[in-house]
Amino acid sequence: MIVYSSSVADFKEAVDDNKIAVNIEAAFIEKLGKRPSVSEWRSWNNSMQFMERIIRNSRVADDCGVMIEYNIPATSKRIDFVIAGQDDEQNRNFIIVELKQWEDAWSTEKEDIVKTSINGAVRETTHPSYQAWSYRQFIVDMNAAVYSQDVHAHSVAFLHNYREKNPEPLKAKQYEKTIAEAPLFLSHETKKLQDFIFKYVGKGKGMQLLYEIENGKITPSKSLVDHINALFEGNSDFVLLDEQKVAYETIVALAKKQDRKRTIIIKGGPGTGKSVISMNALGGLLRHSLNAKFIAPNSSFRNVMVEMLTKQSSRSKMRTKSLFLGSGSFVETENDQFDVLIVDEAHRLKGKGAYMYRGDNQIEDIVKSAKTSVFFIDDLQRIRPDDIGTIEEIKRIAKMRGSEVHEYSLHAQFRCAGAEGYLNWVDDVLGIQNTGNFNGWDKAFFDFRIVDSPHRLYELIKDKQANGHKARLIAGYAWDWTSPKQGNPNGQIEDVVVEEHDFRMPWNGYAIRESWAIHPDGINQVGCVHTTQGLEFDYVGVIIGNDLKYDSETGALYSDYKDYKDVTGKKGLKNDPARLNSLIKNIYKILMSRGMKGCYIYCRDQALQAYMKERLAKTTE
């Protein structure tokens, strides 16, 4: 969606009359149905004065097209400024201009990452040239009017308030490749920017091209499909087995029809391969030229999936990442805007009032927005009161929206060394559901142990990691988590404390929270359910805190409200101990099912530790 567009002639006139910010504001309200913030208005009023001088002095034709605040479909990202036209050889071109009002910046050792002052504090952010490049790449990859009509896309970053330093951190050697792809212009380089703009669009005739871009069909280009195919090829993390292949082919076959609205529900417990199927479905649907996106409520899970798939440079990650969205991204999307939306971990979808979610029901948002919506779900993995994702609720919404429901179940166990008996045992031991499973599992293939100290637990995990296995220490949310504002940006404070064993470790750090599961520093921090749900490791060590205890008189597990520290997770449950207990037990089942080869546990409540040992002793090899 283009918020504001005009010819260069009209743009210059609006700036001359000091009406440009007012005009953009009016278009913003009309197109988006809300008022811009004061900071946005000021930014338009300031930056457009600079851009008008650049455009006027570049002497481009008056019938070049200008668009301001182009909203990238299904994201909150808006491109600041685009100018379109033709060059001397009548090639059709457009230039994305990423505008920044920065005055200072600092380089970092991270690829395409810099530091600058944002909202009163120095923070890490992407290099302006990288940001401009990523926006261009999205349009080239997904807008058929661009990639199929021989339209040439360019991008630049313009920091009109920025005076060059010596040496200049934004032009450091590690950013040279990015700047070559999206040139960077500072305050003293306006003549160079003017020449760049005239070179590609100076001959005008750009209004029709803007119309085509705005109305172009959003569907993957062959270049993007080839890129995704290359990522899947030879990647053993995403190989489909047995019933996973059946589910995958079913999703693709139904989605390809596009003859009516459909909702597909794929049910499966931990380790049944839901994520393997969902990721493959994304690739398969793109290959059929369908506008498909992968949705996951948990940002940690999304980012680790991208990391596992790409394992390459930040450009590959960004290009791939545009296909992965959060579950709150569809409040304002149009009906059937997407061909297919694939939702993994659908049990974590939210309702009205959830943190930073502006809508009423994420299930309804998704079903509304796609011709075919696919939900991968496990009703027993909801962990917070605001998790509304249930099979029943999906069916209700689908019926309300006139969407045909298809339902499938996954049964085969591909995690925990295929030890379905182990997961049944966990269900029974935690009192989640009666499985009557006392027969155990093949302990030669899945290693489960109960250890007597958190130190021993950590030693086992460190040893597995040192020997080439993916291993992590994880725990229930039974300790407070010190925030970055309190001096804990990346696990500097040891929050997870077991006094009786003089054991202290930090929670997963804020700075690496979205990649903790695969980050090298992750082994020295304790993960929680929010950084592990949906993911898997070779071995996990689970600390069961005082939020879950065992009553030896009644033989029941119960939860302690004051020892459960997830404020959002226990909101409204102070007087509902049964529901609180159910959610906390779900959390521990999730944690105890993250290991493919083994799981070791330590229970802080000694009655629970004794109960677990007693139950384990009754299992057989």
TrEMBL record:
Gene3D superfamilies: P-loop containing nucleotide triphosphate hydrolases. This is DUF2075 domain-containing protein. The lineage of its organism: Bacteria, Bacillati, Bacillota, Bacilli, Bacillales. InterPro entries: P-loop_NTPase, SLFN_3-like_DNA/RNA_helicase. It holds the Pfam family SLFN-g3_helicase. It comes from the Bacteria. Residues 261-605 form the Schlafen group 3-like DNA/RNA helicase domain.
